[in-house]
Amino acid sequence: MLLPIELAILDAGLTIQPREGSFFGFALARTLAERDGSALVSHGTLYRALNRMDAAGLLESEWEAPELAEADGRPRRRLYRVTGAGEAAFRAAARTEQQRGTVTGEALA
Amino acid sequence: MLLPIELAILDAGLTIQPREGSFFGFALARTLAERDGSALVSHGTLYRALNRMDAAGLLESEWEAPELAEADGRPRRRLYRVTGAGEAAFRAAARTEQQRGTVTGEALA
DNA sequence: GACTTATACGCACATAGGTGCGTATAGTCA
DNA sequence: TGACTATACGCACCTATGTGCGTATAAGTC
């Protein structure tokens, strides 16, 4: 079963992905913090969840091109995309969880 | 004239450079902190000094290869080397400053 | 139902480079 | 010598990812 954090990551990821193509940990933390009013999820927990889901095949990832980070004068980002398996797992879990308000359901539209 | 920080950077840089080939800001901060007992120089001040000296031609710099940072699982480093002009400026300044104990003089050996 | 075990979590901190802002210090000029 | 200006400085914080450690919570076993 999907944990609440994993559900939230897939939810936010599937919302951002069609617009931006991919998403990364730090921005995701900001998004989740805004969504829940305050910083519900610590950075350590989020990055561990991302690695876990990457290893499990729910997400796929790659390092951003160094030139982009260099041009913006910031550290490199690790870019994530929700895989087919991730989306399937999300849709299955969201249907049962939506009534409890655990997810926004935004990505189900 | 060279500022104390700039003198310290050149001193440490010229000590490390023959061994390591180059040096970077974060390790330099550790070295200077150990040398003076405690953290005399804040990170912001150090990085600003490095940029200043880079622009002035006392140092030259390049970003580390992304693969190295990735293999070690850490952010990329900016690698600095003391230029000929930097070494000349250091030797000139160190001769007059050494009596006051401002530099270790290690790099003059 | 109690007892053990696995793991997800938050907190603190590390690694690396960098900016914004107010102050202190040094240098310049009248 | 006093006022005025430039800049170097420390402090706090930002961007981004990640680990170590102790705890809380859930799952599994007897």
Description:
The structure is a homodimer of 109-residue chains. Chain A has a single domain, classed as Orthogonal Bundle (Arc Repressor Mutant, subunit A). Chain A is mainly alpha-helical. Chain A has five helices and three strands, in the order αβααβαβα. At the A-B interface, loops of A face loops of B. Chain B binds a DNA duplex (30 and 30 nucleotides) through α3.
Strand order of the largest sheet of chain A: 1-3-2
**Assembly state (oligomeric):** homodimer
Distance between the termini of chain A: 22 Å
Alpha-beta classification of chain A: mainly alpha
Helicity range of chain A: 55-70%
The whole-angstrom Rg of chain A is: 14 Å
What is the gist of this entry?
The first copy, chain A, is mainly alpha-helical. The first copy, chain A, has 5 helices and 3 strands.
Tags for this model:
homodimer, 109 residues, mainly alpha, Arc Repressor Mutant, subunit A, globular
